[in-house]
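Recall that a protein's primary structure is simply its ordered list of amino acids. Everything else, from secondary elements to tertiary packing, is in principle encoded there. The following example makes that idea concrete.
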Amino acid sequence: MALHGLIGFLVGIGLAVVAGLDVPAGTEPSIVERLGAWAIVVVPFVYGVAGGLLTAIAAALYNAVAAVVGGIRVEMRSVRRTKAERTQKSENPNSAEEA
């Protein structure tokens, strides 16, 4: 939601700038021109809420499909070196590491 709100804030600034432009005489102002500076407040809120909800729905759908189809399992293990190995490596930087 925060990321979508930030994007909405940037869009709201752009809309506020566009709203500040003059409306040609004899024409009805658009919704953007009616929002004016309020676009900086309204658009981030709408983007944040809508983006957060849509992202939550997409994540739920992904999890449901991944539960049925399966997913990718990644296992990582940490390789810890002893102090002597680190010292030896720093003293001889041209030595090849063992796999």
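DSSP finds four helices and no strands in the chain. The CA atoms of residues 30 and 82 lie 69 Å apart.
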